Amino acid sequence: MATDTPATPATPDVPGRDPRHPFGGTTPPAPRPPWDAPWASYPVEQVRPFALIGGRTRPRHPIQLITLLSANNPADQAADDTFGGAPGNAGGGAGRGAAGDAGGEVAAGVLVQGRVPEADLVVGLCRERPRSLAEIAARIGLPVQAAKIIVSDLLDAGALVVPPPLPEDRDRRQLLEALLTGLEAMSDVA
Amino acid sequence: MSPDHNPTPGPCTPMKIIISGGFGVGKTTMVGAVSEIEPLSTEERLTQASGGLDPLTGIEGKTTTTVALDFGRRTLHRQRIELYLFGTPGQPRFWFLWEDLVTDACGAVILIDTRRLADSFEPIGFFEHRAIPFIIAINDFADDPHRYSPDEVAHALHLPAHVPVVRCDARERHSTARVLAALITHTLTHQHQHTPSPSPSPDGVPT
């Protein structure tokens, strides 16, 4: 359990999976396999979300819809490509890195509930740029509350960080006025 | 998708606006009209389970329903603000799914289709009760034979006199931006009028 070899391919290889529209959206839902097909061959989106997070409902970190999350030290991790390869696991780690999903290594083996492909996706997304929880949830195709649990695990594991709040010298009213200025500029453009 | 003028991605402060309204009224469209990313959602097909709850009267052309959050983002580089837009179904009773949805929101736009005014009763009551500033935006549907004036709509909805009612085309970016600007103007005049802002200090010098 602790050092499960990443023998299975990362999420992008799951057939029929489109990270942008995992639950449908503009993509039609994948056809259901025949009734006698093994459960494991069902499309990913038919797996109940709370199976992925071990039935937990309460994150350990206070994360809100617009809480921004970043991958921890992206430079270090990109350089140390086999970081997640625990002793005796380097081969698998390198293979996954070559597949272009280096984010997976960070989460490998450190999540309490076992690594889920969604965790790799989340780290990869947050490496590109800071992402809000809402965006993460939508992009990995999970309910917000389920995404919160995965993000919380990744925070515990040190794979993600919440960037410290900006030094904001504007009060609420000044922020609203700035927002209004920006919106008016947007509505004026011919 | 529109790269903004300023290429330097400076740190931005997140702000939040809620777009609410009945089923099929154009919330997703409105979010998409100003979002710089493809609006994200977990839209699912209307199933039989919701048959009695999401009536399709008047909008038989619509076959899917948004059962989850719609989400868009717009960075205002010049203002150092990252605006988040959340489209939510018109039934606040489901909003517990996103417990912090309305926390610190700048306000809400309740988008309405004049053929189905009753869809807006629930969100209006919700925002009124919570003292969250909101405005009504009439989404003008081309195939709607009846055009009602904002005054008529305000009367029909028994709105308090100070709640603005505007018309819009939710598909159109400038129109949507005008709606959002009207909301923020409303928020500034009605949420903050009784709380005198602290004496203005010179820029960049926190008191």
Low-confidence runs of at least 5 consecutive residues of chain B: 1-8, 43-51, 194-207
Spatial strand sequence of the major β-sheet of chain B? 2-5-6-1-7-8-9
Supply the number of helical segments of chain B. Answer: 4
Structural class of chain A: mainly alpha
Protein chain pair with the most extensive contact, residues per chain: A-B, 42 and 52 residues
User: Order of SSEs of chain A, N→C?
Assistant: HEHHHHEHHEH
Helix content of chain A: 25-40%
- Multimerization status: heterodimer
End-to-end CA span of chain A = 59 Å
Return the CATH class of the domain at 13-39 and 65-142 and 161-190 in chain B: Alpha Beta
Q: How would a textbook summarize the main sheet of chain A?
A: 3 strands, antiparallel
Topology (elements, then pairings):
The complex is a heterodimer of chains A (190) and B (207).
Chain A: H1 49-52, E1 68-71, H2 74-79, H3 90-98, H4 103-107, H5 117-128, E2 131-132, H6 133-140, H7 144-156, E3 160-161, H8 172-188
Chain B: E1 13-21, H1 27-34, E2 40-41, E3 44-45, E4 64-65, E5 70-76, E6 81-87, E7 107-112, H2 121-130, E8 134-139, H3 150-156, E9 165-168, H4 173-190
Parallel strand pairs in B: 1-6, 1-7, 7-8, 8-9
Antiparallel strand pairs in B: 2-5, 3-4, 5-6
Protein name (chain A): DUF742 domain-containing protein
Biased composition (Low complexity) (chain A): 1-13
Biased composition (Gly residues) (chain A): 85-100
